[in-house]
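Hi support team,

I'm opening this ticket because the web form for multi-chain structure prediction keeps timing out on my end. I have pasted the exact lines I submitted so you can reproduce it. The total is 519 residues across two entries, so I didn't expect it to be a heavy job. Is there a limit I'm missing, or should I split the entries? Thanks in advance, R.K.
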Amino acid sequence: MFKKQKTNLNIVKELAITDLKLRYQGSVGGYLWTLMKPLFLFTVLYIVFTKFLRIGSNIPFYAIYLLLGVVIWSFFAEVTSVCIGSIVGKGELIRKIYFPRILLVIANSLTSFIVFLLNLVIVFCFMLFLKVPLTANFLYFPLLILELYILVLGVSLLLSALYVRFRDIAPIWEVFLQAMFYATPILYPLSLVPQNIAKIMCLSPITQIIQGSRYVLVSNQTLTVNNFLSLPWILIPYILPIFMLILGYFVFNRMSAKFAEEI
Amino acid sequence: MSKSRLLITNENKEVAIRVDGVSKIFKIPHEKNYSLKGTVLNILKKKSYTKLSALNDISFEVKKGEFFGIVGRNGSGKSTLLKILAKIYTTDTGRVVVNGGLSPFLEVGVGFNPELTARENIYLNGALLGLSRKMVDSKMSEIVSFSELREFMDMKLKNFSSGMQVRLAFSIAIQAHSEIILVDEVLAVGDYNFQQKCFNVFRKLKKEGRTIIFVTHDMGNVEIFCDRAMLLEKGKIKYIGDSKKAAKEYLILNKE
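Hello R.K., no limit was hit. The queue was backed up. Here is the completed structure from your submission:
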């Protein structure tokens, strides 16, 4: 039993390494692009929102505040878009050899997770550079990241399994992501949103994670779900990730036995 | 090692694989429907598909240490059976019991990625066959020398000929030391010299007391290597037993 786990771990490792290698295959910048992307993004956000638009001029360190939201959202959007094809894209492999199919999704999500962590390092560098005061609250941040990963894995499992049978899932998910991007306080502060709409937004775990991260890392003036929701509604954004993981795992397990025949 | 020796003295009476009343039916829809809209519309419509019975009530046993051949014409169900043994397909009815570790060797180079170098592919393929990075490292020189591709190890796999890829894949696969090995017509590629090398490996594995399930169209090899063989025809067992007899039956079947 123990040996099996070790073999599975090794498969995940090798698949993730391969994925990471192929991601920047043939580009001169290579891995550097992983770091350059948030760097350029930050520059653009900084110029647009602090020099031209001045939406959040009353929020301290608004550029960092924005960058954090964008980096978290990009991780969610990217990993789910990649993982949707984790199974279908590896059809050749699935038809030829047996191993727990879930490893393919885990490997894909881990690759994106590593890139995400590197992006966070860049965010931390900016925070140091701009002298954002650090409080003990930042100890909560790993918990938020864990919650985010649980959510992402659950959604990815569900999508990748359904995509084997229903190819419509990909464009539907793309549209859904676009809508969610604007329905989440990423580019605008939550304080600008009318109270009753903000309440609905706060039901989304993504909103809760982004606002929570801003609260613990940037400024404790940040509005969080606690400002809008009370029991029992406030539990929804925290329960949803776990619910998604259980649902995703259940659906994936049910469907995975037939993957080899259906792809 | 001591375990396999014990089995030999035990006259290999233990069962390695037991297949019990296995059937597999593929439902091939007339219109392949991949879309959500199609599914919604189809709920009311009666689905039309052709039932293809790939395997029909197959039962047999393979003893430990046996070299067991499976022969049959194209579409007789050989590959489906191997895929069921390798857990890639599920059965519709019946049961498969596998005693011991199993290395599927259905197609060579599983997981090979053309954009990676040969060396990187060895790690990736090795992982899928159950070899850790450490184990691959310790076997690397053996793998490289067996494949005779030393000077190409850091070349991308897309620049390899198909014969070279097969050689590399085979060299990795023989390092996965499982008690049961499934082999599906992999020897069709590769030059004469390499084929001989592969057969030597099979002889060695057989001597070590491993169980080998061997699917091929080459009756000469069946007669030389297999202790017993099974002839499949349209998803049913037409003959099972002596390998020479199975080979003869197969040739008769082909003349019909």
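A quick check on our side: Strands of chain B lie at 15-29, 49-63, 67-72, 93-98, 102-105, 180-184, 211-215, 228-233, 236-242. Let us know if the file doesn't open in your viewer.
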